[in-house]
Specification:
Number of helices: 1
Distance between the termini: 85 Å
Largest sheet: none
Number of domains: 1
Number of strands: 0
Shape: rod-shaped
Strand content: under 5%
Length: 57
């Protein structure tokens, strides 16, 4: 019974680790998307400013 108890605990530990890794991957995915959107917005603003300046000339 001692060995089965050991295995039960081990499986729980693995499950917790996988859950933590999933949360970590989700966080990285969200950060990557936010960074991508931020760069996109900055580029669009820069393009708009360039267009506005060319109209001023």
């Amino acid at each position: 019974s001692g060995s089965s108890k050991y295995w039960d605990v081990n499986l729980e530990d693995i499950d917790v680790d996988l859950q933590g890794e999933h949360d970590f991957m989700l966080l990285i995915w969200i950060l990557q998307n936010l960074l991508f959107l931020l760069i996109l917005i900055m580029r669009l603003r820069r393009m708009r400013i360039k267009k506005a300046c060319s109209l001023c000339d």
